[in-house]
Design brief:
Elements (H helix, E strand, L loop, with lengths): L10 E4 L5 H13 L4 E2 L10 H11 L2 E6 L7 H19 L10 E5 L7 H8 L2 E4 L5 H10 L18 E2 L32 E4 L2 E2 L5 E3 L5 E8 L19 E5 L3 E2 L5 E8 L7 E9 L4 E5 L5 E4 L6 E2 L9 E2 L17 E11 L3 E8 L8 E4 L4 E10 L5 E9 L4 E3 L5 E4 L2 E6 L9 E6 L4 E10 L7 E18 L8 E4 L3 E11 L2
Parallel strand pairs: 1-2, 1-3, 3-4, 4-5, 9-14, 21-31
Antiparallel strand pairs: 6-14, 7-10, 8-9, 10-19, 11-13, 11-18, 12-15, 13-14, 15-19, 16-17, 16-19, 20-22, 22-28, 23-27, 23-29, 24-28, 25-26, 25-28, 29-30, 29-31
């Protein structure tokens, strides 16, 4: 049992060493249930232990005080309690969150009571009654409170430890006489078939099912399948698995520093377990999207289906498997096994940069300037597609207030491939101008002129506004390799930017 040392949210446990027998049981059960727990056995030799304690309390996501006759007398526990209470109030004062930003729980291990300032603090915190209770009973109360959920790695707690349903497995040299999928634990090619989902060459933690992915990279997923019945049962049909189908749950987005689940399911109509699954936790240090690489899904086996492409139904209702054809029938024996392979790319979530500025001298551009009646102004609208994909139907429309008049035939677009400028129609102040598609990373500038009315007789502010509409492109559909790609659009985005002209008469 080790104190948590990672960078995920963790629980700080304050206790007296005289109570370590019961406290260590509680900590171990918390860890076994997926909670990240730090306690002072995690102090590093040679470090200033007071500094490390203060650091751990400052950055913990939950605090548990194990109250007993020994801990309420401990000067160290008192210091930790005061520090945790101060940290909780500091977070509240800084509007980081509500009290849940640092849940403070007290577990009463005996009938001891507190007094003075310590009592004022502890009486305001949630209590768990552990008097004459077992460690398991205390854990049940802690978990049911839900106050510690932020410190729990939810990924770990699926039946069968990331795969399911739980099954003891068979040995390769002693296969069963009935149909069963992916249940041999010593397959000479695949190893433990219950872990049938993997990613090639990612950054992998000590946990075989936890992977770090980085935006910009492409990753290859592999799913193996095997009917473990004895091959001699095929002739009678007793060993042939029917309606075998594979489906994948691929997350659309990754939230920075939070685990997201990639899951593969294999189902059948007549095997020992009708549905089996395996999971991988994806960890990304940045907000990102996950995109399937079109046409990358394929099946590889020893039959005629080898190197056959799979449809995108793999990610919804599922694709049927087979040997020589997609029949859903998988005979028994390693020679009829296979694997599913597909690629996905991780792309950072970024934003479209959009800015409107104005100049009276064509040199100094700002969103606020001083002007005089009769001045001719140059408006410049900048866009850069920092989105994670292309954006389409990019449309600009400007609103000019009374006293500011658009000058016809002055609207010009500067963007690849028109780096020297392309003259546009005069619709920018009317219905708007659709400039088409901006690829990922592409910049553009629209520029036009307007005049301050000569009739303005008093000082005033003229506020003008630019609107930008576009549709993010989620993916492209390909009818065939020869056909032009067709975009699948996401919902439209509306952005706007303003400039202010101070008119001095």
């Amino acid at each position: 049992m080790k104190a948590y040392t990672g960078d995920q949210p963790f629980i700080f446990v304050s206790y007296a060493h005289a109570d370590r027998e019961i406290v260590y049981q509680i900590i171990e059960l918390l860890q076994n249930n997926g909670y990240h727990v730090w306690y002072d056995e995690g102090l590093h030799i040679g470090n200033d232990w007071r500094d490390e304690l203060a650091n751990k309390i400052q950055f913990c996501r939950a605090f548990i005080f194990m109250q007993s006759s020994a801990s309420i007398k401990s000067a160290f526990c008192k210091d930790e309690i005061y520090a945790a209470d101060s940290e909780m109030k500091e977070r509240m004062n800084n509007n980081i969150s509500d009290e849940d930003s640092l849940p403070f729980l007290t577990v009463r291990l005996d009938e001891s009571d507190v007094s003075g300032g310590l009592r004022m603090i502890l009486n305001s915190k949630q209590k768990v009654n552990g008097v004459n209770a077992s460690a398991k009973e205390i854990i049940q109360q802690l978990i049911s409170s839900s106050k510690l959920d932020a410190c729990r790695d939810q990924f770990r707690y699926v039946e069968g430890v990331n795969w399911g349903p739980e099954r003891s497995g068979y040995y390769f040299d002693d296969c069963p006489d009935h149909r069963v999928l992916n249940s041999v634990i010593d397959n000479p090619i695949y190893g433990d078939e219950r872990h049938f989902l993997s990613i090639d060459n990612p950054l992998q933690s000590e946990d075989d099912h936890l992977y770090t992915v980085i935006p910009g990279n492409i990753y290859t997923v592999q799913i193996i399948y095997n009917n473990d019945a004895r091959p001699n049962t095929n002739a009678s049909g007793k060993g042939i698995a029917d309606k075998v189908k594979v489906s994948v749950k691929l997350p659309d987005k990754l939230t920075a520093n939070k685990l997201e689940i990639l899951q593969a399911d294999i189902s059948s109509a007549n095997t020992e377990h009708r549905n089996i699954w395996d999971q991988i936790a994806l960890f990304c240090p940045f907000d990102a999207v996950v995109e399937y690489i079109p046409a990358s899904g394929k099946i590889y086996n020893y039959g005629k289906l080898n190197n056959t492409g799979l449809s995108t139904e793999l990610f919804s209702t599922g694709d049927y498997l087979g040997f020589n054809k997609v029949s859903g029938k998988v005979p028994a024996g390693l020679q009829f096994s296979g694997r599913i392979v597909f690629d996905f790319q991780v792309k950072a979530i970024r934003q479209v940069f959009f800015e409107r500025t104005v100049s009276v001298d064509k040199k100094n551009y700002s969103n606020r300037i001083s002007v005089r009646p009769g001045d001719i102004l140059t408006f410049r609208i900048k866009i850069k597609n920092n989105h994670y994909n292309d954006i389409g139907y990019v449309t600009f429309r400007d609103e000019l207030p009374e006293g500011l008049e658009y000058i016809p035939d002055t609207t010009i677009l500067y963007a690849i491939p028109n780096v020297t400028g392309r003259k546009l129609c005069d619709a920018i102040t009317k219905n708007g101008i659709n400039t088409g598609l901006f690829g990922e990373g592409v910049s553009g500038v629209i520029q036009y002129k307007a005049k301050i009315s000569e009739d303005i007789s008093t000082s005033c502010e003229l506020v003008s506004k630019s609107h930008l509409w576009f549709n993010p492109i989620k993916e492209y559909n390909y009818d065939s390799p020869e056909h032009r790609r067709k975009p699948v659009l996401d919902k439209a985005v509306d952005m706007h930017s303003e400039t202010t002209c101070y008119v001095h008469v």
